[in-house]
Amino acid sequence: MPETLVIGSNNQKKARELADILAGLPWTVKTLADFSPMAEPVEDGDTFEANALKKARYYGDALGLPCVADDSGLIVDALGGAPGVQSARYAGPECRDDKNVEKLLRALDQVPWHERTARFVCCAAFVAPGREPYITVGTVEGHIAAAPFGDRGFGYDPVFVPSPHEHTFAEMEPDKKHAISHRGRAFRQLRGYLEALA
User: Fold this and answer.
1) Cα-based distances in Å from 75 to 44, 56, 80, 83, 95
2) pLDDT of residue 197
3) Rounded to an integer, what distance in angstroms lies between the CA atom of residue 152 and that of residue 176?
4) Confidence at residue 1, expressed as pLDDT on a 0 to 100 scale
5) pLDDT < 70: residue spans in the chain
6) 172-180 long-range CB contacts below 8 Å, 24 or more apart?
7) Which strands form 160-162's sheet, in the order they lie side by side?
8) Are the C-beta atoms of residues 144 and 160 closer than 8 Å to each other?
9) N or C: which end of the chain has fewer CB within 10 A?
10) CA 59, 62, 68 angle in degrees (round to 5)?
11) pTM recorded for the entire structure
12) Do residues 159 and 168 make contact, with C-beta atoms less than 8 angstroms apart?
């Protein structure tokens, strides 16, 4: 009987994306939607790694199961690295994706294309009883588009154009996005570790 692995995210779109990336593992992969609702941990870490570890430990401890979680964000050079670890809360603690994107585009309104360089970063953490945490990091370089394009993905996907491509993540088929995305890169590294554990 394969061991259960929980994806520690209440973001249903992210959880589905991670379930796709982790599909086929010799684990029974479940999301938080498979369990009773629980409060979310406060993401107050100063780094992606700290927040990813906090979420993985929180949900893993609450459920008594091995857990993977990530913290991801967008780093924009012209904004001094913002929104960074505050990416999900850039426009406020209860904001929606579209409000975060609107605030980002307003901040970059007068910034020319060649200065709109940015990167997505994903830190993925795995925790399990009796094991040291395992952490991986994935990044992808790109630019911020002048306006949103595409209706796939979530977060800043409609305005992030990964180099050397000409379309945003939100315009790409999921398989193509996973192949080059920060989250895909981080979780493919983690996937190899999980395959060796099973």
Assistant:
1) 18, 23, 8, 6, 18
2) 83
3) 12
4) 58
5) 1
6) 174/17, 174/20, 177/152, 177/153, 178/17, 178/20, 178/21, 180/140
7) 28-31, 4-7, 67-76, 117-127, 134-144, 160-162
8) yes
9) N
10) 25
11) 0.90
12) yes
Using one digit for the tens of pLDDT, what is the confidence trace for 2-14? 789 999 998 888 8
- Catalytic positions, please? 71
Sign of the dihedral defined by the CA atoms of residues 150, 152, 158, 163, in that order: negative
CATH of domain 4-197: 3.90.950.10
Tokens of 53: 């570890």
Beta-strand runs (E) in 10-147? 28-31, 67-76, 117-127, 134-144
Per-domain residue ranges of the chain: 4-197
Rounded to an integer, what distance in angstroms lies between the CA atom of residue 4 and that of residue 29?
A: 6
> What are the tokens at 170?
């939100």
Which conformational region is residue 130 in: left (phi greater than 0), alpha (psi within -120 to 50 degrees), or beta? Answer: left
Quickly tell me which residue has 């913290």 as its tokens.
71
How far apart CA 35 and CA 13 sit, in angstroms, is: 17
The amino acid at 158: P
Locus of tokens 């315009």: 171
- Could you tell me which of 158, 142, 132 has the C-alpha nearest to residue 66? 132
Extract the tokens encoding 9. 């995210």
